[in-house]
Amino acid sequence: MVPILMQTEKLLVDSHCHLDFPDFEGRLPELRAAMQANGVTHALCISTTIAGYPRVLEIASGYDNFWCSVGVHPDTEGEQEATQAELVALAAHPKVVALGETGLDYFRLKGDLEWQRERFRRHIRAAREVGKPLIIHTRAAPDDTLRVMREEKAGEAGGVLHCFTESLDMARAAIDMGFHISFSGIVTFKNAKDLKEVARVLPLERILVETDSPYLAPVPHRGKVNQPALVKHVAEEVARLRGQSFEEIARATSDNFFRLFRIEPGGAIAA
Q1: In the chain, alpha helices (H)
Q2: Banded pLDDT at 10 (limits 50, 70, 90)
Q3: Does residue 214 have a cis bond before it (omega within 30 degrees)?
Q4: Which terminus has fewer CB within 10 Å in the chain: N or C?
Q5: ω into 54 cis (within 30 of 0)
Q6: Is the domain defined by 5-265 classed in CATH 3.90.700.10?
Q7: Which of 159, 89, 93, 168 is CA-nearest to residue 120?
Q8: Are 227 and 31 in contact (CB under 8 A)?
Q9: Residue (of 127, 32, 121, 34) closest to 81 by Cα position
Q10: Which DSSP string do the residues of 28-51 spell out, in sequence order?
Q11: What are the sequence ranges of the domains in the chain?
């Protein structure tokens, strides 16, 4: 495992990225150097398929300041499923700090999506059993997402609604269940007026920031391949919207991350 340079002052955390995707093949040293240069000290690498999970775990296991999740993304129709028992077994690894990403996506897929809801339920049950939080993807499915979360007692596991783009009412309902809300580069887009208002008014202790890289690069890098270093632009926009300092937002979102995922901060990336 590659060591990291210890420090007392945390800066930023990318709470959701996909470093196993082809966009980053052979680029980990470059990505980590960019993280260091931009004060991004830690990252959570997210699983989207069971077949791809070993590579996600390999990346997380190679560095003291990377962690990972295990799960099957809701819009991967026909993807290898995992039973509750299998998810629990995979999530027992100490580098796995969450289940997901899981959830519901009615934007990309149409028709009978009961299979998607059943997949979501299995992830929630596994998270409750193993005692680790959920990373929830929800798009164009607010009512069913909240309904399944309530029916399956997702609040017992807790977690985060990542890359949030839904309404303030949905955000507040999730927070009432003990969840966090994570903002991606979308919050920097000029046309994201409603989302900017959500970021402005939510309790600071329930906010995370992320890149969802390689997707959704924030302004001023919109349209390019995203990477963990660019999470600083998300934090800067959240700070601007809330009338708070960048340092305050960076500190709070990092503290929220470590508390939610029960991680010891450790330190920063070594040169």
Answers
A1: 28-37, 53-61, 84-91, 114-130, 142-151, 168-176, 193-201, 231-242, 246-260
A2: low
A3: yes
A4: C
A5: no
A6: no
A7: 159
A8: yes
A9: 121
A10: HHHHHHHHHHTTEEEEEEPP--TT
A11: 5-265
